[in-house]
Amino acid sequence: MIRSHVMICGGTGCTASGSKQLQETLAQELEKKGLQDEIKIVQTGCFGLCALGPIMIIYPEGVFYSRVTVDDIPEIVEEHLLKGRIVQRLVHTDEQADQVVTSLAETSFYKIQHRVALRNCGVINPEDIDEYIAMDGYAALQKVLTEMTPDDVIQTLLASGLRGRGGAGFPTGQKWKFARAYDDDQKYVCCNADEGDPGAFMDRSVLEGDPHAVLEAMAIAGYTIGASQGYIYVRAEYPIAVKRLQIAIQQARDYGLLGDNILGTGFKFDIDLRLGAGAFVCGEETALMTSIEGKRGEPRPRPPFPAEKGLFQKPSILNNVETYANIPQIILKGADWFASMGTEKSKGTKVFALGGKIKHTGLVEVPMGTTLRQIVEEVGGGIPGGKKFKAAQTGGPSGGCIPAEYFDIPMDYDNLLAIGSMMGSGGLIVMDEDNCMVDIAKFFLSFTVDESCGKCTPCRIGTRRMLEILEKITDGKATMEDLDNLEELCYYVKANSLCGLGQTAPNPVLSTLRFFRDEYEAHIKEKRCPAGVCKHLLSFEIDPVKCKGCTACARKCPVNCISGAVKQPHVIDKEKCIKCGTCIETCKFGAISKK
Amino acid sequence: MKSIEELAKIREQMKSKMALRESEGTIRVVVGMATCGIAAGARPVLNTLVEEVNKENLTDKVSVTQTGCIGICQYEPVVEVFEGDNKVTYVKMTSDKAKRVVAEHLIGGKVVEEYTIGANQAV
Predict the structure, then answer these.
(1) A539-594 maps to which CATH number?
(2) CB distance from A78 to chain B under 8 Å?
(3) Engineering a disulfide at A448: which of A34, A250, A332, A505 sits with its beta carbon 3.0 to 4.6 angstroms away?
(4) Is residue B98 part of a domain?
């Protein structure tokens, strides 16, 4: 009889930090102690606290161990699982609360979180359909098939206020209503799992941690719009998500929850996977559908919209993974429950992937309208090294930055749009005073230049010319006229590109120009990078007073550009210096500075 | 293919198996599993408690966990039952005694006086 469950995170983050080996070692150790029939190992999806991985939670006590290594396993088995003594040194210490917390729910990371889309992530074994069923899985599908008409489902979604979680925030109920209205012999339900923004990984975590929720919601969508076939377009770079989806689809077919005559109601629906080759443009709806059709992934003009002529020219809907993950809950708990969370026009919760200069890198889900300050300081644990918050980038290469003066902005679709950013799929990259905003804009733009599919000229050539101007600025060769041209080009590319990729590509430039124009001007007029990032504008110098002549920097310098006799102040040959910063890290006396 | 009834059945069965992961039940049964407890035979007691609690479908309100040395090694195996602010300490437990505690105390709500530390000290 099982008396304890050991949950080990099997998400991509913790797998990378070694959770697989942990699981194997634990299984061997349990066997050695003869505990294999008393303790069950459960591999789960992402808990969200990726920075502290690999993560292990032991029930029934609910003890939360972080950064567990293979060497810790014998102690955990001997002390905790056999003798019931918590291994204190592995228990997560909450720096903000300045205390040791034994359970996950007590951490400041989880306190203001509200998990709807992520409710099963880290709670169930995603490879076991029975565990999903125990968490009321497929109850929403049953309710829809036996008690609701397709119009009831649409009404519920409209009343809930659910908007697309992929970025633009289009009302989901509306989308389904349009697709239902078109009459055709075949319609399609598609799922966009082509998450490609740098720094975003919420869809991956949902697929890895709770794949059945997406399948269930797609079946509900099929019933609602009158489709019998679904496609999940998922990146091939997400091997764990792909594997778990394959397992989930097979299990659902075995149980008759996908296929003909689902639950004996006569409803027929099946789902297939399509693996994306990793082109960012395939996250755009028309390009995604073109790619599923087996053609080169390029967008096509709208209208006609996919609701009328989508996949294979048939009426289709496309929703994002996180949007789907919310739907079974809305059906079961009602539209009012969902609408009670969030702000006036943005209901429910939003998952954010925290990255950049933040302590708790990971996944968080908070009610819409939570302020950026709460997300960064309370949930994210603030910025390491006591540095100052400068800005946060949301929406990836399509979004913009939120500067410190808007630190208290309630995060929802409309507030972010109003300040020139966007919710996007939920990537949230935190930047501190050491980040150069021109460099950030350049980074995102070089991403869109690479990812532009080339079909339309404004995007293919316009983004390239913009990047060239940005490079001129960071090289210190630009004039104020270049800055004007850059801005004009931004508006041109935005207005004339064919699809969302090009239309939003200038956003990172426009938003950094709006809030950090002084940084651009410092690069151009003073040939200076205020954050000390842009290499061409930096010069390294040794303070002759502080230099002790220890020769450490000269020995470390990869291009041998530092010279000087022992116990005499050294000098840097600025012509040869490649500005790598190795000397600054090496110097024990703080004698070297960059300007 | 599963029918709606079969789906409901799976849900019920799995729910009790996963109840372990819910927040702790209203009654907490703690078994002393330090070296002294294990030497005195605490493991069969722990396993019996887990089995009985599952068999009687008590997993929603009862959680069974272990603890370290309580400090009364001569009375091991020790089992403590916490309910609200109340604590009952059973001493010198065996598998058979554990079955009676589940039946009479956890289900019946009546403390098995003769196994408690109070009764054993008086002897």
Answers:
(1) 3.30.70.20
(2) no
(3) A505
(4) yes
Chain B within 8 Å of A255 (Cβ-Cβ)?
yes
Tokens of B84: 């609200």
Are the beta carbons of A497 and A456 closer than 8 angstroms?
yes
Min Cα separation B86/chain A (Å): 19
Distance between A109 CA and the closest CA of chain B, angstroms? 18
Measured CA angle at B122 (ends B121, B123), to 5 deg: 90
Question: Amino acid letter at B3?
Answer: S
Q: What is the pLDDT of residue B123?
A: 46
Distance from CA of B93 to the nearest CA of A (A): 17
User: Which tokens sit at A302?
Assistant: 């709208």
**Which of A1, A138, A259 minimises the CB distance to B51?**
A1
Q: Name the fold adopted by A437-525.
A: de novo design (two linked rop proteins) (1.20.1440)
Q: Which are the contacts of B12, defined by CB distance < 8 A and separation ≥ 6?
A: none
Write the class of the CATH domain A4-107. Answer: alpha beta
Which residue has 């554990």 as its token pair? B98
Q: Which of A85, A130, A255 sits opposite B14 (nearest CB)?
A: A130
What's domain A129-338's architecture?
Answer: 3-Layer(aba) Sandwich (3.40)
B101 DSSP assignment = I
What pLDDT tens digit does each residue of chain B (123 aa) get?
788 999 999 998 888 788 777 755 678 898 988 888 888 899 899 999 999 988 888 887 888 888 877 778 888 899 999 887 788 999 999 999 999 999 999 998 899 999 998 887 754
Say if residues A285 and A128 touch (Cβ distance below 8 Å). no
Query: What is the C-alpha to C-alpha distance for residues B46 and B10, in angstroms, rounded to an integer?
Result: 27
Q: Does B20 touch chain A (CB under 8 A)?
A: yes
Contact between A255 and B2 using a beta-carbon 8 Å cutoff: yes
Residues A383/A376, Cβ–Cβ less than 8 Å: yes
CB within 8 Å: A133 and B7: yes
- Chain A contact present for B17, CB below 8 A: yes
Cβ atoms of A11 and A239 closer than 8 Å: no
Q: List the one residue out of A156, A288, A311, A140 whose CA is nearest residue A214.
A: A140
Instruction: Note down the domain range covering B87.
Output: 23-122
Q: Which of residues 32-71 of B touch A (CB under 8 A)?
A: 32-35, 37-38, 46-47, 50-51, 54, 63-68
ipTM rounded to 2 decimals: 0.81
Min Cα distance A21 → chain B (Å) is: 23
If one counts the domains in chain B, the total is 1
Is the residue at B18 inside a domain?
A: no
Give the other-Cβ count within 10 Å of A518's Cβ: 10
Is B12 a domain residue? no
CB contact under 8 A, B20 and A60: yes
Which residues on chain B are in Cβ contact (under 8 Å) with A141?
none
Query: Quick check: is B80 in a domain?
Result: yes
Question: Using the beta-carbon criterion (under 8 Å), do A1 and B50 form an inter-chain contact?
Answer: yes
* CB nearest to A1's CB, from B32, B54, B67: B54
- Interchain CB distance below 8 Å, A136 and B11: yes
Cβ-Cβ contacts under 8 Å for A24 (sequence gap 6 or more): none
Please list the ranges in chain A whose pLDDT falls under 70: 95-102
